[in-house]
Amino acid sequence: MNLKTMNDTNLIAKTESLVREERVLLTTVLRHLHEINRRRLYSSMGYKSLFDFAVRHLGYPEDQAYRRIAAMKLIQEVPEIEKKMNAGEISLTHIGLAQSLFRQEKKMANEFSHEQKLSVFDQIANKPVREAERITLSLSSAPELAKPDRVNTVSENLVELKFTASIELRKKVESLKGLLAHQHPNLSLGELFEQLCDLGLSEWNPGKIAAPRKCRVTQKPSQAQILRGVFQRANTQCENCSSVYALEIDHVVPQAKGGNSEVENLRILCRSCNQRSAIKEFGAKKMEQYLN
Ligand SMILES: [Zn+2]
C-alpha cells in the first residue's frame, strides 16, 4: 500500500490499529521470553542469562532487554498488568518505576501484597512518566533510598558508579581509610573500593590456593580440597557458558542416579546452566518448585 495516496482518515485509523497490534505483540514477546526462561533454554545455547540471550541473540539494546525482562517477571507476579499494557495504559517505563518501588520496599521488609501492587498500577496508569515517578516516590517508605544504582560511562576505560549508602557505611569507609592511612594516604573512594574488590575476589574465590598443610601424601584429599580442585580446573567459571555469576557444583551423573562426589563426576556450572541441566534430566514440571 502506497502511504502517500492513503487518505487522512485511513492513515490515522491504520496507524492506531498498528499501535494496538504493536502493544499486543510486545506482551506476546514477553510470554515467549518467559517460556524460554522457564526452560532455561538460553543455557543450552551457551548464553549466560536470559538478558545475555536477549542482547546477543535477539539483538535488543541492553536497556530494552532489561526493561522487557523486568516486565516479563512482573507480569508473573501481577498478571492483571498484561491487560493494561495491551490497552496502552501502562508502558515498560511505568513497569520499571513500579518495580524499583517494589524491590526497595521488599529490601526493607515491607513487601507489597498483590493488592497493593495492583493499586500502584491503578494509580500510575495513563499518567505521564514524570507524574508516575512522583507517585511511586510518594508511595516509598524511604524515598531517599529509592534511587537505583547507576553506572555511567565516562570514557573507554572509566565509569562513574553511583549508589546511595547508609550513614553506617560512611563511618566504615572512614575507619577503613584510617586503617590504611600509613600505607595509602589520601585514598580515594574509587581506590578503596578497588582494594576491597581485590580482597573479596581473592578471599571468596572458591578455587583459591590454600596454604599448604602438613599432611601425609597417602591421606585422602578432604571434600574441601576436592571442591577447590574442581573450581581451579574450571578456572572459576561456568564450564558451559563461562559465566562467573552464582557458580555451583554440579554432579555430572546426578546423586539421585548414583553419581559420586569424586573429582571426575563434578563440574562447575552457573545457576542457570545447572537449572537447565536439571530440567533436561528431570523435566521442567518436576523442577518447577525449585525454580523462580
Ligand atoms: Zn552457565
Can you give keywords for this protein?
mainly alpha; 3 domains; DNA Binding (I), subunit A; 292 residues; two-stranded antiparallel ribbon; 7% strand; two-stranded antiparallel sheet; 13 helices; binds zinc ion
Largest sheet: 2 strands, antiparallel
What is the helix fraction of residues, given as a range? Answer: 40-55%
Q: List low-confidence stretches.
A: none
The CA-CA distance between the termini, in Å, is: 46 Å
Count of separate DSSP helical elements: 13
Q: Report the structural category.
A: mainly alpha
Mean residue pLDDT:
89
Fraction of residues in β-strands: 5-15%
Strand count: 4
Write down the overall geometry. globular
Number of domains: 3
Q: Whole-number radius of gyration?
A: 25 Å
Topology order in helix (H) and strand (E) letters: HHHHHHHHEEHHHEEHH
List the strand order in the largest sheet.
1-2
Cofactors, ions and other ligands in the entry = zinc ion
